[in-house]
């Protein structure tokens, strides 16, 4: 389940990079770093979720990573909304006079 959440976040970040490339020039490296980190976490969680049934420490860690993934998803969505507002303001200010 946590791996599925991370997979969704990674997909959203990738979609965002494609759709908002013009506005991401300054933060592109940071967004790509976050994407790489989330992919690494996703791979690890696939294995960890199986082990969490036998180890309470791993189970707790999986829960914590799941919460971090939810927060990361919220941050990505907030950033997307901010970039969309910025684009609309830019388009409105460069429109016909």
Automatic annotation (TrEMBL):
One of its GO terms (biological process) is defense response. One of its GO terms (molecular function) is nucleotide binding. Keywords: Leucine-rich repeat, Nucleotide-binding, Plant defense, Repeat. The keyword Nucleotide-binding applies. Residues 5-88 form the Disease resistance N-terminal domain. It comes from the Eukaryota. It holds the Pfam family Rx_N. Belongs to the disease resistance NB-LRR family. This is Disease resistance N-terminal domain-containing protein. It comes from Spirodela intermedia (Intermediate duckweed).
